[in-house]
Amino acid sequence: MVGGLAAAAPVVQVPEGGAGVPVVSKGVVCGPLRAGWTLASDSRTLRPPQRVEQDDARIQELKVASSVGQCETTEERVTVIATGPFPRVDAAATNFFPDEGRVELRGAGLDHVGISWSGTPRGESQPQLIEGQDRCLAPSTERGPASCTVPVARGLPTDAALYWTPPHGRHGPDVTTYDASGNVVDPETFRLRPGRVVLTQPLIQSGGVDVSRGPGSVALSHSEALASVDCGPVRCEVNEGTVSLRNVPGVDVSVTLRLRLAPRIYFARGEVLEQVLLETLPVLACPLTAVEGTVLRDAENAAMVVRLDTSCQHDPRKLLWSMNDQRARVERVVKAQDGVYVLLRTGGTSEQQVTVIAQTSRVEGSVVASDTTKTQPLPVPRASLELSDQGAIDFIPINRPAELIVASSGEQGRFVPRPVAGAYSIISRDGTTYVQGEPTAGGFVSLRFGYQVSTLPGELATADLFVVNERVQRSVREASVPIRIESVVELVCADKEGKDQVLEPSRPHRINYEMRNSCRVIIHRERLKPEQGTQEIVLRIDVTKADGSARGESHVEQRMLLRPQGEARTIPVPGQLAQFDRILVQVSLVADESRYALSTSDRSGLPSAQWTAIVRGGRFRLYTTATIPAGLYRATEPSGQLILNFGVVSRLALLNNEGQERLLGIEMGLMGMGLIPQSGDIEFPPTLAVVLGLSLRVPIGPGAAVGAQAWVAREFRDDITRRSDGSVVPSSRWSFIFGPSISVGNVGFNL
What we know:
751 residues, 7 domains, mainly beta, seven-stranded antiparallel β-sheet, 1% helix
């Protein structure tokens, strides 16, 4: 019984709805079973479900034992699978694409049908067996036979062993498969022999026939796919992964190989399937390879780099080199561990591919080495210039270096800037590249770059394969960097002791009245550095009086160009300043983008600066003004309204720090009152009075104000009478009057 258990297959699979099958030849099957599975009375035969609704119910792992009593302790197990119904696979209509890693199945019932594969690729130095399995998950649903593409491993040989498995089933040496009737199915029944094996990658992997060390050989991707090979006068035979060639008449000829594929094997050339392939290969005495990234098209006076194998015994300098029948000149030769690298200077080409040939002499014309390779499009340099304090610029500065940033031209090549005599020079500092225009240069110029491939060995890594100009032109001019205005412009005034003091901008300052004419603006051109460039500024000087009116004779407005390393310039504040005059000095840079190197990311505006100073004055002001009280009210008996009044008063007012009057003041003057007869029984005669009192004034313009007064008046008048009877009303010559007024004029002085 133990021997029977050992011989039992670990995996048993039978179609759903099929007959019962023996799981073990001896012993018993231990439970429990999932729903739908039925165990016969002999405890060995298992019947699958009639229909499986869920895929996870198809597979279960069961314990098997010698007897029922050993079910609890047994470690033996067997896996049972309820597969789907067997499909009908049309092998003749099935296609196998080993290079693309897919099998195109045709037939019926392909859903979840599996493909198992195994095979060892030819031509590899250490071939390894490739095995795997995948399934058809989305077969086509059109009428007729269905089709489904199943992925397999790439690189399988054309004679790889392919097997199909029932839906949800497995393939392997430990799998026993039963049909729906309960009969064991021979594993070879599942062997899949596709009607067509289609190759899509080049069959020949060599660029030429190397006969430098004896018989030549050509590498093949699928040597097992060849039925025969014919090389004309050259003797050739198929080996494992190669075609060996003997009796080659010379290295200056080519060999044409006629390859015939085995039955059912085709090569896809576009939409056409071929079984006979013709390939013409040059015979190479020295393996020659064009270095990737160095063969470029559409470049004038370009160079390319080729590599000769170390087995080549020829001196590259003594060979005649040509590219597409054009003479090539050897410029540099560098020996490395993997071969000899040769830099060839050619006239350039616009072809999509080139053939490089090395000959021993023109007379014999013996080809020592040859290689055909595709050209790559000419890379284009993309550069930008930046100033450390201003960001990106679009010109070449002549007064300071600009950092040059060159975008990457790919994984291999790089662009290295080259100077242009008379236009600009290149500076390298701390790993950073800078460009600066010549001091006498002007106009426009394109940046020049040399193209290098840094992966080349030795001095070839710094050799220019070609020189190209940038496709855009940049102006060469001075880079004027906006400066801080206060660094070169100062407002200087003398203090009370007569010593000069520099006033800070954006802060109010007060100047002693005695030193009011000492203020001046000093422009320090000597502080400008050459790298800051020429600065263009606008200077404005304005002086306003205490009442806000402008002092015209003190106005200054000048536009100036400041060149570095010039002499200092002094501009005095003109005019005879008075007390509480306000001096306003404004300096700003002219907004000219053609002059300044403005940042493209930070446009916060050009710098400007402003100074403010006030001439000190008295604490009080005594002045005379004309006053027109529109309606004074006489509070003393007899009281009444004085309609029209006019007078001249002197006012003593307290001044603030700005020279403006405070609201309250003391007034004294001469006033004509009651100039128009008023209505009512009391008749006030027009009179002249001396007034003294307090007033509130609010300025409404230069020399004008509105206010309210409260005066004590001494009246010079006739008697006050009544209109009703003409009787005299007893009254004092002293009175208290108050009311609003309008004042015009401000003639006086500060105390």
